[in-house]
Amino acid sequence: MNGDGSDIAGAGLTDVLGVSIDPELLQLALTHRSYAYENGGLAHNERLEFLGDSILGQAVTVMLYTDNPTLDEGELAKRRASLVSSVALAEVARSIGLGAHVRLGKGEEQTGGRDKGSILADTVEAIIGAAYLSLGGEKATALVLRLIVPLMDNPERFGAAMDPKTSLQELAARLGRGLPNYQVTDSGPDHSKRFHATVLLGKVEIATGDGSSKKQAEMAAALDAWTQLQSQLPPAV
Protein backbone atom coordinates (compact mmCIF):
# COMPACT_ATOMS: atom_id res chain seq x y z
CA MET A 1 0.00 0.00 0.00
CA ASN A 2 1.09 3.61 -0.63
CA GLY A 3 1.06 6.25 2.05
CA ASP A 4 -2.17 7.46 0.48
CA GLY A 5 -3.82 4.16 1.38
CA SER A 6 -4.06 2.78 -2.14
CA ASP A 7 -2.42 -0.07 -4.00
CA ILE A 8 0.32 1.14 -6.35
CA ALA A 9 -1.72 -0.12 -9.29
CA GLY A 10 -4.87 -1.44 -7.64
CA ALA A 11 -3.54 -4.99 -7.80
CA GLY A 12 -5.93 -6.07 -5.08
CA LEU A 13 -8.84 -5.23 -7.38
CA THR A 14 -7.91 -7.69 -10.12
CA ASP A 15 -9.60 -10.71 -8.55
CA VAL A 16 -12.71 -8.70 -7.68
CA LEU A 17 -13.05 -7.21 -11.15
CA GLY A 18 -12.27 -10.46 -12.91
CA VAL A 19 -10.09 -8.73 -15.51
CA SER A 20 -6.42 -7.70 -15.66
CA ILE A 21 -6.34 -4.05 -16.67
CA ASP A 22 -3.00 -2.55 -17.69
CA PRO A 23 -1.41 -1.46 -14.36
CA GLU A 24 -0.66 2.09 -15.51
CA LEU A 25 -4.19 2.60 -16.79
CA LEU A 26 -5.66 1.13 -13.61
CA GLN A 27 -3.53 3.42 -11.47
CA LEU A 28 -4.68 6.39 -13.54
CA ALA A 29 -8.31 5.29 -13.10
CA LEU A 30 -7.79 5.27 -9.34
CA THR A 31 -6.19 8.72 -9.20
CA HIS A 32 -8.59 11.40 -8.02
CA ARG A 33 -7.88 14.99 -9.03
CA SER A 34 -7.24 15.95 -5.39
CA TYR A 35 -4.28 13.55 -5.28
CA ALA A 36 -3.02 14.74 -8.66
CA TYR A 37 -3.10 18.41 -7.64
CA GLU A 38 -1.30 17.76 -4.36
CA ASN A 39 1.45 15.84 -6.13
CA GLY A 40 2.65 18.25 -8.75
CA GLY A 41 -0.21 18.17 -11.23
CA LEU A 42 -0.19 14.47 -12.11
CA ALA A 43 -2.65 13.05 -14.60
CA HIS A 44 -5.98 12.09 -13.00
CA ASN A 45 -8.97 9.95 -13.89
CA GLU A 46 -11.50 12.44 -15.29
CA ARG A 47 -10.81 11.68 -18.98
CA LEU A 48 -11.17 7.95 -18.28
CA GLU A 49 -14.37 8.73 -16.38
CA PHE A 50 -15.73 10.51 -19.47
CA LEU A 51 -14.95 7.48 -21.63
CA GLY A 52 -16.27 4.98 -19.10
CA ASP A 53 -19.58 6.82 -18.80
CA SER A 54 -20.19 6.24 -22.52
CA ILE A 55 -19.22 2.55 -22.36
CA LEU A 56 -21.42 2.06 -19.31
CA GLY A 57 -24.43 3.69 -20.93
CA GLN A 58 -24.12 1.67 -24.13
CA ALA A 59 -23.65 -1.66 -22.33
CA VAL A 60 -26.62 -1.12 -20.02
CA THR A 61 -28.83 0.14 -22.86
CA VAL A 62 -28.13 -2.87 -25.07
CA MET A 63 -28.60 -5.27 -22.16
CA LEU A 64 -31.95 -3.79 -21.17
CA TYR A 65 -33.19 -3.67 -24.77
CA THR A 66 -32.18 -7.28 -25.44
CA ASP A 67 -33.40 -8.78 -22.18
CA ASN A 68 -36.74 -6.95 -21.98
CA PRO A 69 -38.52 -7.23 -25.35
CA THR A 70 -41.92 -6.29 -23.90
CA LEU A 71 -40.89 -3.05 -22.16
CA ASP A 72 -41.63 0.27 -23.84
CA GLU A 73 -39.13 3.08 -24.32
CA GLY A 74 -40.19 4.94 -21.19
CA GLU A 75 -39.73 1.95 -18.91
CA LEU A 76 -36.38 1.08 -20.50
CA ALA A 77 -35.20 4.67 -19.98
CA LYS A 78 -36.30 4.58 -16.35
CA ARG A 79 -34.39 1.38 -15.69
CA ARG A 80 -31.30 2.67 -17.44
CA ALA A 81 -31.36 5.88 -15.39
CA SER A 82 -31.48 3.83 -12.21
CA LEU A 83 -28.66 1.47 -13.14
CA VAL A 84 -26.21 4.14 -14.32
CA SER A 85 -26.97 6.66 -11.55
CA SER A 86 -24.22 7.87 -9.24
CA VAL A 87 -25.96 6.18 -6.34
CA ALA A 88 -26.02 2.82 -8.14
CA LEU A 89 -22.37 3.12 -9.13
CA ALA A 90 -21.39 4.07 -5.58
CA GLU A 91 -23.23 0.98 -4.37
CA VAL A 92 -21.23 -1.11 -6.84
CA ALA A 93 -18.01 0.51 -5.63
CA ARG A 94 -18.76 -0.24 -1.99
CA SER A 95 -19.61 -3.85 -2.82
CA ILE A 96 -16.11 -4.41 -4.21
CA GLY A 97 -14.26 -2.34 -1.60
CA LEU A 98 -13.14 0.22 -4.14
CA GLY A 99 -12.74 3.08 -1.69
CA ALA A 100 -9.64 1.52 -0.15
CA HIS A 101 -7.82 1.70 -3.49
CA VAL A 102 -8.58 5.28 -4.58
CA ARG A 103 -5.64 7.70 -4.55
CA LEU A 104 -6.91 10.77 -2.68
CA GLY A 105 -5.46 14.08 -1.59
CA LYS A 106 -5.13 14.77 2.12
CA GLY A 107 -8.15 17.05 2.18
CA GLU A 108 -10.48 14.47 0.66
CA GLU A 109 -8.94 11.78 2.86
CA GLN A 110 -9.73 13.76 5.99
CA THR A 111 -13.32 14.48 4.97
CA GLY A 112 -14.34 10.88 4.25
CA GLY A 113 -13.60 10.84 0.54
CA ARG A 114 -13.14 7.07 0.47
CA ASP A 115 -16.87 6.64 1.05
CA LYS A 116 -18.09 9.72 -0.82
CA GLY A 117 -20.66 8.62 -3.37
CA SER A 118 -19.57 10.98 -6.13
CA ILE A 119 -15.91 9.95 -5.90
CA LEU A 120 -16.76 6.25 -5.84
CA ALA A 121 -19.15 6.53 -8.80
CA ASP A 122 -16.66 8.50 -10.87
CA THR A 123 -13.92 5.96 -10.12
CA VAL A 124 -16.12 3.07 -11.29
CA GLU A 125 -16.63 4.87 -14.60
CA ALA A 126 -12.90 5.53 -14.88
CA ILE A 127 -12.14 1.84 -14.33
CA ILE A 128 -14.61 0.94 -17.08
CA GLY A 129 -12.82 3.40 -19.38
CA ALA A 130 -9.46 1.88 -18.47
CA ALA A 131 -10.81 -1.60 -19.16
CA TYR A 132 -11.97 -0.49 -22.61
CA LEU A 133 -8.57 0.96 -23.54
CA SER A 134 -6.68 -1.97 -22.08
CA LEU A 135 -8.83 -4.92 -23.09
CA GLY A 136 -11.25 -3.75 -25.79
CA GLY A 137 -14.99 -3.26 -26.02
CA GLU A 138 -16.11 -6.85 -25.49
CA LYS A 139 -14.30 -7.33 -22.19
CA ALA A 140 -15.20 -3.84 -20.99
CA THR A 141 -18.88 -4.58 -21.68
CA ALA A 142 -18.60 -7.89 -19.82
CA LEU A 143 -17.12 -6.02 -16.86
CA VAL A 144 -19.99 -3.53 -16.87
CA LEU A 145 -22.58 -6.29 -16.83
CA ARG A 146 -20.76 -8.20 -14.10
CA LEU A 147 -20.87 -5.09 -11.92
CA ILE A 148 -24.36 -3.84 -12.78
CA VAL A 149 -26.56 -6.93 -13.17
CA PRO A 150 -26.66 -7.72 -9.40
CA LEU A 151 -28.38 -4.36 -8.87
CA MET A 152 -31.37 -5.64 -10.82
CA ASP A 153 -32.28 -8.07 -8.05
CA ASN A 154 -34.27 -5.22 -6.45
CA PRO A 155 -36.94 -4.10 -8.95
CA GLU A 156 -38.19 -1.36 -6.60
CA ARG A 157 -34.97 0.49 -7.39
CA PHE A 158 -36.35 1.50 -10.78
CA GLY A 159 -39.26 3.49 -9.38
CA ALA A 160 -37.08 5.17 -6.75
CA ALA A 161 -34.62 6.41 -9.37
CA MET A 162 -37.30 8.45 -11.11
CA ASP A 163 -38.69 10.17 -7.99
CA PRO A 164 -36.26 9.49 -5.15
CA LYS A 165 -37.56 12.17 -2.78
CA THR A 166 -41.11 10.83 -2.86
CA SER A 167 -39.87 7.23 -2.66
CA LEU A 168 -37.73 8.08 0.36
CA GLN A 169 -40.62 9.87 2.08
CA GLU A 170 -42.90 6.86 1.58
CA LEU A 171 -40.27 4.37 2.75
CA ALA A 172 -39.35 6.45 5.80
CA ALA A 173 -43.04 6.56 6.74
CA ARG A 174 -43.30 2.76 6.42
CA LEU A 175 -40.36 2.43 8.79
CA GLY A 176 -41.72 5.04 11.21
CA ARG A 177 -38.74 7.31 10.70
CA GLY A 178 -40.63 10.56 10.04
CA LEU A 179 -40.23 13.08 7.23
CA PRO A 180 -36.86 13.58 5.51
CA ASN A 181 -35.16 16.95 5.93
CA TYR A 182 -32.51 18.26 3.54
CA GLN A 183 -29.56 20.52 4.27
CA VAL A 184 -27.75 21.92 1.22
CA THR A 185 -24.46 23.77 0.90
CA ASP A 186 -22.64 24.99 -2.20
CA SER A 187 -19.07 25.63 -3.19
CA GLY A 188 -17.09 26.90 -6.16
CA PRO A 189 -17.39 29.99 -8.38
CA ASP A 190 -20.78 31.24 -9.54
CA HIS A 191 -20.31 29.90 -13.06
CA SER A 192 -19.44 26.40 -11.83
CA LYS A 193 -21.09 25.80 -8.47
CA ARG A 194 -21.33 22.36 -6.90
CA PHE A 195 -24.05 21.56 -4.39
CA HIS A 196 -23.82 19.10 -1.50
CA ALA A 197 -26.99 17.82 0.18
CA THR A 198 -27.38 15.91 3.42
CA VAL A 199 -30.67 14.15 4.17
CA LEU A 200 -31.71 13.66 7.79
CA LEU A 201 -34.44 11.63 9.43
CA GLY A 202 -35.04 13.29 12.75
CA LYS A 203 -31.57 14.37 13.83
CA VAL A 204 -29.81 11.43 12.18
CA GLU A 205 -27.81 12.02 9.00
CA ILE A 206 -28.70 9.20 6.59
CA ALA A 207 -26.95 10.01 3.33
CA THR A 208 -25.38 12.73 1.22
CA GLY A 209 -25.42 13.63 -2.46
CA ASP A 210 -23.71 16.01 -4.86
CA GLY A 211 -24.86 17.73 -8.03
CA SER A 212 -24.65 20.78 -10.25
CA SER A 213 -27.92 22.10 -8.79
CA LYS A 214 -29.65 22.00 -5.42
CA LYS A 215 -32.33 19.70 -6.88
CA GLN A 216 -29.78 17.24 -8.28
CA ALA A 217 -27.91 17.09 -4.98
CA GLU A 218 -31.11 16.49 -3.01
CA MET A 219 -32.23 13.77 -5.41
CA ALA A 220 -28.84 12.03 -5.18
CA ALA A 221 -28.97 12.15 -1.39
CA ALA A 222 -32.56 10.89 -1.36
CA LEU A 223 -31.77 7.93 -3.63
CA ASP A 224 -28.75 6.98 -1.52
CA ALA A 225 -30.87 7.20 1.64
CA TRP A 226 -33.64 5.13 0.03
CA THR A 227 -31.10 2.45 -0.92
CA GLN A 228 -29.82 2.30 2.66
CA LEU A 229 -33.30 2.13 4.19
CA GLN A 230 -34.30 -0.66 1.81
CA SER A 231 -31.82 -2.92 3.59
CA GLN A 232 -33.74 -2.38 6.84
CA LEU A 233 -37.00 -3.78 5.49
CA PRO A 234 -37.90 -7.31 6.63
CA PRO A 235 -37.46 -9.95 3.91
CA ALA A 236 -40.51 -10.58 1.76
CA VAL A 237 -42.42 -13.71 2.61
Structure description:
It is a single chain. With 237 residues, the protein is mainly alpha-helical. It has two domains: 11-153, Ribonuclease iii, N-terminal Endonuclease Domain, Chain A; 163-230, Double Stranded RNA Binding Domain. Helices cover 55% and strands 10% of the residues. The chain has a three-stranded antiparallel beta sheet with strand order 1-2-3. Strand 2 (194-201) and strand 3 (204-211) form a beta hairpin. Helix 4 (46-67) packs across helix 9 (137-148). Residues 1-7 have low confidence and may be disordered.
Query: Element order, helices and strands?
Result: HHHHHHHHHHHEEEH
In DSSP terms (H or I, runs of 4 or more residues), the helix count works out at 12
Distance between the termini: 45 Å
- Based on the structure given, which CATH architecture of the largest domain is correct? Orthogonal Bundle
Strand count: 3
